[in-house]
Design a protein that fits this description.
The chain has 390 residues and is of the alpha/beta class. The chain has helices spanning 13-22, 41-50, 69-77, 106-125, 175-184, 202-211, 233-246, 262-275, 310-313, 316-329, 344-348, and strands at 2-7, 26-31, 34-39, 58-65, 90-99, 136-144, 147-153, 193-195, 255-259, 281-285, 299-302, 334-339, 354-360, 363-370. The strands form two sheets. It has a seven-stranded mixed sheet with strand order 2-3-1-4-7-6-5. It has a seven-stranded mixed sheet with strand order 10-9-8-11-12-14-13, covered by helices on one side.
Length: 390
């Protein structure tokens, strides 16, 4: 058993925690922007393949207090690096971050941790020089309140890179954040979902992947697949077989993506095709002013323009007024908007029932939640709770 660290977007820790628990693993700690849990070799594999909201999966190699660079060196050197890094392994510190700590220079932390590992492995492998021609072992160092945690990255490329988004439009939302926001809502695959600002299609595609039970990591590789000294290749084979067995191939969904820009629609179609979910989503060039739907009790989840450029900011009041008017026509629907526009509620014409601060990249934004009524109970259409999940 090892401890695994899963970093995530700030504010999305509860969603990630639930995903980990749904996979059957025990939570050790929840902190700002990361969740630590316990598992064996198969947990490394399954977490990478199945978790939708984590940025990567790290093996926690060790944790210790350090207020000086000498303490950082000795604490790092004390870790049993030989248990995972072979004699020809290529290792480096890809990122160091600190918070509320005496040690704060990222470059110094990176070089000292690397030097300490080299010194430890020299004594283990009885060599003075490492070829570093084998598999890669990138490390990440977090220092919070003078406590150092060192994690070994098993994912490689960030887990938001599912492999389907070949093309992107303006201001795209990351796949992991889109999935987390969808999972914050009570949307289920039997309910209509519309994104009137779909851009490159991330919200509709992530919803289709969730609804069809398609694991986000099915169509990509992971760095730890090359660690045959640590994780047998059969573990990866079994993980992918489990992912195949979970796909709901007979599911029917009504997911729609609109955008006023025809090039964005072409981009979204290409990405949906690459993700294997094009049959579940209808994309169409359409302005938000034309937003309407004959059916009731649907969901809108969307990422409208924020107005990052000055000339765009001037257009925001009119745009958000238009969004509010379109929303009023869909009075039985639940609507969810992520935006950094601070006057969004004013021009939408309604105060959100709930809102949550989130970060889209480095941009502080809010996830406004306008909760619709429950659909009536009737045959073939169960009642959904419109309360937002934690």
């Amino acid at each position: 058993m090892v401890e695994l660290i899963a970093p995530c977007h700030f504010g999305m820790e509860a969603v990630l925690k639930r995903e980990i628990q749904d996979l059957g693993y025990e939570i050790v700690q929840v902190e700002d922007g990361r969740v630590t849990f316990q598992g064996g070799e198969e947990a490394i594999v399954r977490a990478n393949i199945f978790i939708r909201t984590a940025e990567r999966i790290l093996i926690k190699m060790g944790s210790f207090p350090a207020r000086t660079f000498d303490q950082l060196f000795e604490g790092t050197k004390a870790i049993a690096w030989q248990e995972i890094i072979p004699k020809d392994g290529r290792f480096w510190v890809s990122k160091a971050s600190t918070k509320n700590s005496v040690l704060f220079s990222a470059s110094d932390i990176q070089s000292i941790v690397k030097k300490a590992i080299v010194e430890k492995l020299k004594t283990i492998y009885h060599v003075e020089w490492f070829s570093e021609t084998g598999a890669e072992y990138p490390l990440r160092v977090f220092i919070n309140k003078d406590v150092v945690s060192i994690g070994l990255d098993t994912s490689g490329e960030s887990l938001h890179k599912r492999g389907y988004r070949k093309l992107t439009g303006k201001a795209p939302i990351s796949e992991t954040l889109a999935a987390a926001l969808i999972l914050l809502t009570p949307w289920k695959a039997d309910r209509i979902l519309v994104d009137p600002f779909c851009g490159s299609g991330t919200f509709p595609i992530e919803a289709a992947l969730i609804g069809a039970g398609i694991a986000p990591g099915m169509h990509r590789s992971f760095l730890a697949q090359s660690w045959t000294n640590r994780i047998p290749s059969v573990c990866w084979k079994e993980g992918m077989e489990e992912a195949e067995s979970r796909i709901r191939r007979d599911i029917k969904m009504n997911i729609q993506g609109y955008d006023i820009d025809n090039s964005a629609i072409r981009c979204a179609l290409g990405n949906a095709r690459a993700a294997g979910v094009e049959s579940y989503i209808h994309f169409q060039q359409r302005s938000v002013a034309e937003l309407s739907h004959p059916k009731k009790y649907g969901f809108i989840i969307t990422n409208p323009p924020y107005g990052e450029r000055m000339e765009e900011k001037e257009e925001l009041p009119g745009l958000y007024r238009m969004i509010g008017q379109s929303f009023d026509r869909l009075d039985t629907w639940s609507k969810y908007i992520i935006t950094s526009y601070e006057e969004a509620e004013k021009y939408l014409g309604r105060k959100a029932d709930k809102n949550r601060k989130v970060y889209n990249g480095m941009i502080k934004a809010y996830f406004y939640q306008f909760l619709g009524p429950k659909p009536p109970r009737k045959a073939g259409h169960g009642v959904e709770n419109t309360e937002s999940r934690p």
